[in-house]
Every structure is written in C-alpha cells, then in structure tokens.
Write a structure and sequence with these properties.
Blueprint: H1 2-11, H2 17-44, H3 46-77, H4 79-87, H5 92-131, H6 146-166, H7 168-171, H8 178-183, H9 190-211, H10 215-235, H11 237-248, H12 250-258, H13 264-274, H14 276-306, H15 314-344, H16 347-355, H17 360-398, H18 407-432, H19 437-442
Helix pairs in contact: 1-5, 2-3, 2-5, 2-6, 2-15, 3-6, 3-10, 3-15, 5-6, 9-10, 9-17, 10-14, 10-17, 11-13, 11-14, 11-17, 12-13, 13-17, 14-15, 14-17, 14-18, 15-18, 17-18
C-alpha cells in the first residue's frame, strides 16, 4: 500500500500541495513552541514557559484544525480515483489505508524542513523576548530532539485519525455506486449535523461562564471559545453556507430574473448554493481567518482601553500582535490552499460551459461574482463566530456587551481577507480556463 501511495504522490504532486503546506505548518509550530517550553524547563524562566504553553496551545489547535480541513479536501479531490479502485475490488479498509499512507509519506517528507523552520523560529522568538525583557538576559534555545519528534508524531497522529472522517463518504456504500457518489456530494449526514449542534450547544455555557470571569482568565477563554465555535462551523459548514448564500445571493438572483436569467451573478449564486459542500470548504477557512482576527483585534483593543495607565506594557502589545499575525498566517495559508484547489478542480466544469457557448470573459465574470459571494459568506460567518465570545469578554472587562473594535486594525483584516479570496480565485480560475476545452473534458 505504501508503494501505491507513493505512486499516487508522484503522479500528481500538485494535488497534495495544500496538505503538505498544512502538515508543514503543524510540525513547525509544535517544534517552535515545544522548543521554548524545553528551554523554560532547562532554566529559561517560568514566564517563558507560560508564553510557550499559551502560544503553543492555540497554535496547535489552529494547525490541527487546518490539517483536518485540508485533508478532507485532498480526499474529496481523489474521490473519482478511489471510486475506480473500489469498482476494481478495493475494500473500504484498503482505501482508508491508502489515505493513511499518503498522510504518512507527506508528513515524513515535510518534517525535516519543518524542524529547521521551527528551530529557527524558536531562536528568533526568544531573541525578541529577551530584547523586550520578557525572557531572562542570555537565554538561549536548548536544542533537544524531543520537540521535533513530538511535532511529527502529534501531526501524524491527528492526520491519520482524521482520515477516518475524511474518507468516510468515499468508502461507504456499494462499489457499484462509488462512481455515482463522486458526481454528487449529497446532504450533510445526520451524525455530522448532530455533532455540530452539540458543539454549538456546548459553547453557550462557555459564553456565560466567560462573561463572569476576571479579565485575565476571560482572555484565553475567549479565544478557546472562538475556536470551539469554529469547530461547530466546520461541522455545520454546508448548512450554514447554503443559508448564507440564500441571503447574500438574493440580489443577484433578482437581477438574473430581471435579465431573463442572463446575468452572470445569478448563475454564480445558484451554482454556489447548489454545491454547498464545495462552498463550505471554501468558506470555512475564510471564516477562520476573519473570526480569529476579529476576536484578537477586539480583545486587544478592549484590554488597552480598560487597563490602568502603564499596566498594559508595550511588550504585551507586541505579544498580542505576534499572536494575531501567527493566526492570520494560518488562516491565509488555509484560505489560499483551499480556494486554489477547489477552483483548479473545476476545470472540467469550465470546459463544459465553454463547449456549450460560454466565452472566457463570461466565465471570468462568473468566477469574480462567485469569489465576491464566497468572501462575503466567509466574512459573515467569521463575524458570527467572533461575536458571542468577544461580547462575553467585553462584559467581563467593561460590563458592556459592546467590545472595542479598532477600525484601523479590523478594516485591513477584513479587506485583506476579501482581497485574498478574490485574487486567489481569479488567478487560479484564469489558469484553469486557459486549457483547451476538449482536453480539459477528457482529463480525469
């Protein structure tokens, strides 16, 4: 099975670029903050250990969330090939084993560069902490094989565990129906919906609990609560994406009815709404980027407002900025990987539209509208994710449910997310539509 997995990776390495980037990030951050914790244990100071633990906890959750989401997308892109394997006699267990082998090989491939980047990042971060008197003078990273090995093992464990969920839709059912399943994603399973509702319900008491805690405790609870809500959005993604598109696409559908169905916006809105699973894969990373960035921006601005003069030191502001930049980087990588993969995977769809009379400018206008709607849906869900916990934190810090939202920070974050979405879809769409239609239709 390892040989087959290696052959698949060699035949189409670009299809695994997103998964490789996500696994690289996961191993890197675990190595980085694990190295800081190891340094603290060796005498680097208790505050260094707290910083490494707090940053590492959030970074690990983010990295593993991105890995799980990207792996699901990678498996979905291989649905047709896996369906063909099933019709030739492959069992569901063998398909899952194939995916696990792919995760194993990609993880081992990206681990060495991730160790180097993580070790360098730990040294840079510690140097900055020392320069700001956050870590003891003369502190240096203590090299140990533990953090890199733990980074690879933890990432591999999560990746292999996620294959059971990622491959579930591909391997279920009879082999004779496997190819038909690739043409339609189907409805969201009741188990996934139930899990999403349970996670969403579990976040409600956390919101109430956070609003009643001291400010220092409510900060971490706010971020963890936002991540919990992001998990709920990931599970309920197709349903939420369909609802968001029904609202956001209404003006475009009205325009299409006014122009007798010839408006590209109406086609884009109906197309996105009809492929809710694909849309949710694109929207969730955007919501992740916007939601976490919104939470951090609001929490930082509220802390600066309520802290006594001089209490909220520049070092703390810098730490918050680094944490925000790190999370924004995770969200940006996940967004670009997902959107690029989804857009390129639709090249046969673009080719069929071309063969039925659509021109390339019309396809690009459709893609532009889809990109704008996808970005709007992601921003809407991101704000919805951030709102409950930031409001709870604001109650704990100021007594008011209205948090401080710094427009000079928040505006560029939202506009950057929208620009990233639109540019990624248009750039990859331009490449996907440049291929001759007949060859694109014949491609697997």
């Amino acid at each position: 099975m390892l040989r087959l997995a290696l052959g698949v990776l060699r035949s189409g390495p670009s299809a695994f670029a997103g998964l490789a980037a996500a696994l690289l990030l996961a191993v890197t951050v675990i190595t980085l903050f694990g190295s800081l914790i190891a340094t603290a244990i060796d005498g680097g100071g208790s505050r260094l250990g707290l910083i490494g633990g707090a940053f590492g906890e959030i970074a690990m959750l983010m990295a593993l969330f991105v890995v799980a989401n990207t792996l699901a997308l990678a498996v979905r892109q291989q649905a047709r090939a896996m369906a063909l394997l099933r019709t030739t006699g492959a069992t569901p267990a063998q398909i899952k084993r194939l995916v696990r082998c792919q995760v194993l090989l990609v993880t081992l491939f990206v681990s060495p560069p991730a160790w180097l980047i993580g070790s360098w990042g730990a040294r840079w971060f510690l140097t900055e902490l020392v320069a700001r008197d956050i870590a003891p003078a003369g502190a240096a990273v203590s090299w140990s094989a533990g953090p890199p090995m733990i980074g690879t093992a933890a990432t591999l464990l999560v990746g292999v565990g996620a294959t059971k969920i990622a491959a579930r839709r591909t391997v279920r059912g009879r082999p004779s129906a496997a190819l038909a399943q690739t043409a339609e994603q189907g409805r969201t399973g009741w188990l996934r919906t139930l899990a999403g509702l349970l996670v969403l319900g579990g976040a409600v008491p956390l919101v109430v609990f956070t609003s009643r805690q001291p400010v220092d405790k409510s900060v971490q609870l706010t971020l963890l609560g936002t991540l919990l809500l992001m998990i709920a959005v990931g599970l309920l993604g197709p349903l939420l994406a369909r609802l968001a598109m029904a609202l956001l696409g209404l003006p475009f559908r009205l325009a299409g009815a006014r122009h007798r169905g010839e408006a590209g916006g109406a086609l884009a809105a109906d197309n996105l709404r009809g492929h809710a699973h694909r849309l949710s894969s694109a929207v969730v990373p955007i919501a992740l980027l916007v939601g976490l960035s919104t939470t951090f921006a609001a929490v930082t601005a509220t802390l600066e407002q309520v802290a006594p003069p001089g209490a909220y030191a520049r070092s703390d502001v810098w730490l918050r900025g680094v944490e925000l930049a790190m999370l924004a980087g995770f969200g940006a990588v996940a967004t670009v990987n997902t959107l690029a993969s989804l857009t390129v995977a639709r090249r046969r769809e673009y080719a069929l539209l071309t063969l039925t009379g659509a021109t390339r400018p019309q396809l690009m206008r459709m893609l532009g509208t889809e990109a704008a709607l996808t970005a709007a849906a992601g921003v809407l869900l991101g704000v919805a994710v951030a709102a409950p916990m930031t409001m709870a934190f604001s109650v704990a810090a100021t007594g008011s449910p209205v948090p401080v939202v710094p427009l000079d920070t928040y505006g560029p974050l939202v506009l950057g997310s929208v620009a990233l979405t639109v540019l990624t879809i248009l750039a990859t769409g331009a490449r996907a539509t440049s291929e001759p239609a007949l060859s694109a239709v014949a491609a697997p």
